[in-house]
Predict the structure.
Amino acid sequence: MPSLIDIRRRIRSVKNTQQITKAMKMVSAAKLRRAQDRVIASRPYAAMLRKMLENVAAAVATDEQAGRNPLLAQRAEQRILLVLITLDKGLAGAFNANLIKGAQKFMAEHGGASVRLELIGRKGRDFFRKRQADIAGEHLGLAAKVVYGDLAAIARKAMDLYSQDEIDAVYLLYNGFKSVVAQQLTITRVLPVELRERAERVDYIFELAPAKILDALLPRYVELEFFRAMLESAAAEHAARMTAMEAATSNAGEMIDKLTLYMNRVRQASITKEIIEVVSGAASAE
């Protein structure tokens, strides 16, 4: 049976851990609000850009003189680039494990194709390095401060590989932000860009040729998809960590209660034993 000193030491240790998890929860909550605002602000812009692209693409389709943009070219998916966005840190529940399982499932489902990995985040990088995966690139520290230029550079690299016919498709795999308590594993094909015909078209008056406008907008759209995926992942990270730290804080509280109850029982047993010894000594003296 542990001594009272050992139990008190353990209670003190759990209380210190509880203070840390509570502080981490508060920090994640503050970061989540900012990240959530950025995600919400990016969605209407992306929707409008896609709508504009579809209308411009429809205008280009009617122009027999216009060439086809290489980012729209459809090919059999024999060489795939999978961009996996994981975290640089842990303490976020099953956030990274679900992403890694999702990547492994994707690779198994595309077993007939060559899948290269563009890894954003330390956790995914460490996992696939150990397994000797075909890694095209590694990027660390991007989640701490999501900057458009960093993601645009990765997107341009992917577009160059696609335009040069070195890969046949580009997929993004990340945790999308749905709510504070829900993150959704999301996989999106960003290349080739697939634009559907809109039932309601806007008849723009073009100053430049529609094909030139399309050539300028398509790379921006792909860059934005990478940027939005990183924003979604950052918001989902803070939500997952806040939830995990809230659960850890609650579990620490329950453990403190159990240890305190156990300590009181040990103390009571010790006092009872001492009383019995005193009474027994007095009885034997008589």
Q: What stands out?
A: The beta strands are 79-85, 114-120, 135-139, 169-179, 182-191. The longest helix spans residues 210-285. The domain at 26-242 is CATH 3.40.1380.10 (Pyruvate Kinase; Chain: A, domain 1). The two ends are 33 Å apart (CA to CA).
